[in-house]
Design a protein that fits this description.
Protein-Tyrosine Phosphatase, Chain A; 12 strands; 308 residues; single chain; six-stranded mixed sheet; alpha/beta
Length: 308
């Protein structure tokens, strides 16, 4: 962080939240906040620190900077305040935000409560830089989700919501909330590898499986940890499935998915489960289960050639 800051020398710093990403390295949320706080400390006096007032570890960073602080959140101390919101596929996230005496509605292209923080941070940044509220709302409304980060595809009558870039455990709950709020005759939840958690893997996967089974009709696990929640299969007969190989997973999905289904895919980049979507977009040739490549499949020359 220090090397990047000395090179870039930012005048605006935005801190959205302190999650559990990188917890295996930093060991505690406080240590993560300390690292991110370096951004705020580096800002000049004529800069802006855009901080989430709802996250105590972020809000406390206001004491570390000489820059002007702009707070966003749902509480009364926020300069940019969330008034209300709604989201539930096929409807996207809609927010009402108050900036001073003015209330503005933002209709986004995103799904789920978890994107509220990012949208509000963008809006607060725009306001700090002198953009009119209505113009900021209109510009944010045109932004599409980054590919495979909660973006939506519809192929053969099936709706795919793909979150396959990374899957830190602390974000599982908000992914499940997206599925719970969605409107569809039948819902499926596909898990790949979960990351950034402390404690036993079996407990984490089992907890995730139970939560997903509360909102989805079928829950599927894929990859080297697919059998972690296997003890639940007798408790949920015909609803919980596991596959260690990609070809077996795809065979199951092709037999199972039907018109008007919704399937949410939650996985780490190493799983390459974006191939599920890409297969329905245009049949792929690569069914390798573990290739070791660290970039997304849509950038890979092997996707349609089928060789390694």
């Amino acid at each position: 962080m220090k090397a990047a800051l000395s090179f870039v020398r930012p005048t605006v710093g935005v801190v959205t939240r302190i999650g559990m990403d990188h917890i295996s390295y930093y060991r505690s949320p406080e240590a993560i906040a300390e690292a991110k706080g370096q951004l705020v400390e580096a800002l000049p006096e004529d800069g802006f620190a855009i901080l989430n007032a709802d996250d105590p570890l972020v809000a406390s960073m206001a004491d570390k900077t000489k820059a002007k602080v702009v707070r966003f959140g749902s509480g009364p101390d926020a300069d940019i305040r969330l008034v209300s919101w709604s989201s539930g596929y096929p409807e996207r996230l809609v927010l009402r935000i108050r900036a001073g005496d003015q209330a503005v509605d933002i209709t986004t292209r995103f799904l789920g409560e978890r994107w509220i923080t990012s949208v509000m941070a963008a809006f607060a940044t725009a306001i700090a830089l002198g953009v009119a509220p209505e113009e900021a709302a209109e510009m944010i409304g045109r932004v599409e989700p980054e590919r495979f980060k909660d973006d939506v595809y519809v192929y053969s009558g099936v709706t795919f919501i793909a979150d396959t870039y990374k899957a830190p455990y602390w974000t599982v709950e908000s992914s499940i909330d997206i599925v719970a709020a969605a409107k569809a005759p039948r819902k499926l939840f596909l898990f790949g590898t979960l990351s950034d958690y402390r404690g036993a893997a079996r407990k984490r996967y089992t907890t995730a499986a139970r939560a997903a089974l509360d909102v989805a009709d079928l829950v599927i696990f894929y990859g080297c940890h697919a059998e972690r929640p296997r003890r639940l299969k007798s408790e949920y007969p015909g609803r919980l499935f596991s596959f260690e190989e990609f070809d077996a997973l795809m065979a199951f999905l092709k037999q199972t998915l039907r018109q008007d289904d919704l399937i949410y895919i939650k996985a780490s980049g190493a799983d390459h489960l974006e191939r599920v979507v890409l297969e329905y977009e245009k049949p792929i040739s690569c069914y390798v289960s573990r290739c070791g490549r660290l970039y997304m499949c849509n950038h890979c020359r092997h996707l349609y050639r089928g060789d390694r």
